[in-house]
Structure formats: C-alpha cells, structure tokens
Design goal:
- With about 350 residues, this protein is an alpha/beta fold.
- The chain has one domain: L-arginine/glycine Amidinotransferase, Chain A (5-stranded Propeller).
- It is about 30% helix and about 20% strand.
- The strands form five sheets. Strands 2-1-15 form a three-stranded mixed sheet. Strands 3-4-5 form a three-stranded mixed sheet, with no helix packed on it. Strands 6-7-8 form a three-stranded mixed sheet, with helices on both faces.
- The chain is globular and about 45 Å long.
- The C terminus is likely disordered.
C-alpha cells in the first residue's frame, strides 16, 4: 500500500453549513450564497453533497468515518483536515486555527475514535499556540509528501513558518516553504488549493509561485521523487483542480485500487491530457459539491486521511486475501523459490 494514499478517511456531516464570514477576508476562493437562497436551503444542499461524497468513497472501497455536527456555531466544520492529521507510526497532530470561530471544531470524539480503532502512540497538540497568534492549519496549510517526507507550504496568515519548522522537527519532514499569489497579488490562503501530491503524480500551479528561483526549487524537489508533474493554471486552481487527494480503496474482490478524489467542477477544468495522466496511475472519483465550494474549499478540504494501522485483527478471509496478494507480488516456482531466483 502506498504511504501517500490512506485507505480510511474522516468526514464531518455538518448540518448547519454556511460560508464562514470570519474567513472571507483572506480566502479569495470563498463566494457568497446565491441571492434569495435561504440558510436552511444552503445547509440542506451542502448536507446532500457531504452524503454524496461519503457514498462515492465507500463505493470504491475507502473506509469512511462520518461524524455528525449539529452545532450552528461551527460553519466550517466540514473541513476537518485543518485541525487534525494522522501519520504512519501512530502519531496524530492537532493544529492551531486562524479564525477564532473555527477553534472549537476540534473534537475529542474524533480523537477517541482514532485511539480506539487505530494504533495511536501519541497526540502532538499545537493548538496552545493560538493565544500567541501562531497558526498552522494542518493539511490545508501543508501539502505533505509522506514518502519523501517533505512539507510543501505556502506562507500565509494560516501557515506560520516557525510552527511549520517545529512540526517538521517533530514529525521528521523537510520544510519547503514558498510564497504563492494569484494574478492580483493576493496570497494563497491554503497550500492544498494549489497543490496535490499523489503516489505517481503531483498537480501544482507552479506559475503562482512568483519567485522564479524558488519555483524551480519546488519543481526539482518534486521531480526528484520520480512523480509526473501536472502543471495547473490559475484558472484551473479557481475551479479547485488542485484541491484533490489520492486514496486507497478496494475492488469488489478485495484488490487495492487507487483513486483521486476531487470535485466534478475540478475534473471539468482539467484537459483531456491531464485526465489521462492522472488515470495512468489511479481512477478519478469526482463528486459535484457546488454548495460546499462556496466556502472556498473543495473535496481535499473535506477529507482528513487516516495514515494509521487499524487495531482490528484481520479476519480469516482478509488473511487469505493478504497471503494471496503477497503470492501475486512474489510468485514462486514449484520448488518454493521466488521467480527472481532468491531463496
């Protein structure tokens, strides 16, 4: 299984969704609710979109943990990746949030589920930095290469470099910070709207990194990993093409399948060549979420990936499947030797 693509995710089913007025000032991707549309109607549309995403992910064999949220004071709770991330080896990070009305999105029941369902060794909590005005909004602020251990981060109010370096020291990542702006010079509020790193491909709007030298360094850091780089335009970024995430699901017969989850709007913005490049390594799962995208985030923002080992013992059928997969990957000759000649 790819370390980059988690096989389980956390979704928050927010019944009182509305674009957050407290985040509009620095989120250029945020839009107003259509004129004449009631708050109740907006919330109902968003709820249907959340359910559609959960159903689409389950349909491709991704394990989905859904938590309901009936608190009307948490308009952005549908975006849990900003306050929590999980990491191979059993560590969970909890992050400091920029908007004060987002700070109570952090939920003890989510952390308790992780500890009960998965092997969690430690929880590292950075939220105590909020009174000092220091913020790092999780895998919104950082796009993590879990394989090469690089944290790509666009500087912003929501991504303080001091806490980025602290995170990288604690979790053994290399910080790769840069400035990113749109054509009007407005800083990008979250790195994950301009970049997505999968197992074999990386989608990124390099043109939005104004410093040519730093842009080339980011390009080279991605290229050295062997990934194919798909360069996105600013226009595609505004359609949320960069706000995607690779996941690992299962086919009906139990085989691994890699999928790139994104919104239908994002997929429509991609060229046929870009779609073909993505589909060389994984299939695209696209879900229409226009209401949620009013809040300035898309499918990636809705998903907190679970990069932890599951606690539940493997059932006999799963053990048989695992053995079969090993044998498939390492075929043997009748006398018990691997095909490549090793004993």
């Amino acid at each position: 299984m790819s370390a980059q693509a988690p096989s389980a995710v956390i979704l928050i089913r927010a019944t009182s969704f509305v674009p957050n007025p407290a985040t509009a000032a620095d989120n250029a991707f945020q839009s107003d609710v259509p004129a004449g549309q009631s708050q109740e109607s907006t919330a109902a549309h968003a709820l249907a979109e959340m359910d559609a995403l959960a159903e689409a992910l389950r349909a491709v064999g991704v394990r989905v943990h859904v938590f309901d949220d009936d608190d009307h004071t948490r308009p952005d709770s549908v975006f849990p990746n900003n306050w929590v991330s999980t990491h191979a080896g059993g560590t969970v990070a909890v992050y400091p949030m920029y908007a004060s009305n987002r700070r109570h999105e952090r939920r003890a029941d989510v952390l308790e589920m992780l500890k009960s369902e998965y092997r969690v060794q430690a929880i590292v909590d950075y939220s105590g930095l909020e009174p000092d005005g220091i913020f790092l909004e999780g895998t919104g602020a950082m796009v993590l290469d879990h394989v090469s251990r690089v944290a790509y981060t666009a500087r912003s109010h929501r991504a303080d470099i001091a806490v980025l370096e602290r995170f990288c020291t604690d979790f053994n990542y290399e910080p790769m910070a840069f400035d990113a702006v749109d054509s009007h010079g407005v800083p990008v509020y979250h790195t994950n709207v301009i970049a997505c790193i999968g197992t074999d491909v990386a989608m990124i709007a390099l043109e939005m990194i104004p410093d040519e030298h730093r842009r080339q360094q980011v390009r080279e850091r991605l290229e050295v990993t062997g990934r194919t780089i798909i360069e996105l335009t600013e226009e595609q970024i505004r359609e949320f093409a960069g706000n995607a995430v690779e996941l690992c699901g299962r086919t009906a017969d139990g085989r691994r399948r890699y999928v790139m989850a994104m919104s239908a709007r994002a997929k429509r913005s991609l060229t046929p060549e870009q779609v073909a490049t993505i589909e060389d390594s994984c299939e695209i799962v696209a879900v229409d979420i226009p209401t949620i995208e009013l809040a300035g985030g898309s499918v990636r923002c809705m998903i907190a990936g679970v990069h932890l080992d599951h606690r539940r013992p493997l059932a006999e059928a799963e053990l048989t499947e695992a053995v079969a997969a090993i044998n498939e990957d390492n075929p043997v000759t009748p006398d018990g030797r691997f095909v490549d000649g090793n004993a």
